[in-house]
Amino acid sequence: MSTNVLICDDSNLARKQVLRSLPESLSSDAQLATNGEEALAILRNQNIDVLFLDLTMPVIDGLGVLQAMQDESIELPVFVISADIQPEMQSRVLNLGAKAFLRKPVQLETLNENLKLHGIL
């Protein structure tokens, strides 16, 4: 069974870095979105199993995506990957349902630990 992954970040470099950090079992069918609006369109229309989400993006930011997911009862594991590591922001994303807050650039070991911890691997 394959895992449908969505990586949402406005930075092409960051999207590629997350994609390269994923185990092959997760990266083979990964989809990419450049902002929250694109991510929400994909989430509403496709079966996505896990979302890797940046916070600071144009159109709809990561907090907006998390809020929309909560409002629309879109339930799946979300891992926020951001350079905004302020404790208040970490608390906000976790309160909106994210499984973990990972510092950008994401470290391979940290990512894999969190994927195992939350039953993705």
Description:
The structure is a single chain. This protein is α/β, with parallel strands linked by helices and 121 residues long. It has one domain: Response regulator (Rossmann fold). The chain has 6 helices and 5 strands; from the N terminus they run βααβαβαβαβα. A 5-stranded parallel beta sheet has the order 2-1-3-4-5, sandwiched between helices. Helix 3 runs parallel beside helix 4.
CATH topology: Rossmann fold
Question: Would you identify the CATH architecture?
Answer: 3-Layer(aba) Sandwich
Main structural class:
alpha/beta
Task: Describe the largest sheet.
Answer: 5 strands, parallel
User: Can you count the helices?
Assistant: 6
Residue-averaged pLDDT? 93
Query: How many structural domains can be distinguished in the coordinates?
Result: 1
Residue stretches low in confidence (pLDDT < 50, at least 5 long) are: none
CATH superfamily: Response regulator
List SSEs in N-to-C order.
Answer: EHHEHEHEHEH
What's the alpha carbon Rg, rounded to whole Å?
A: 13 Å
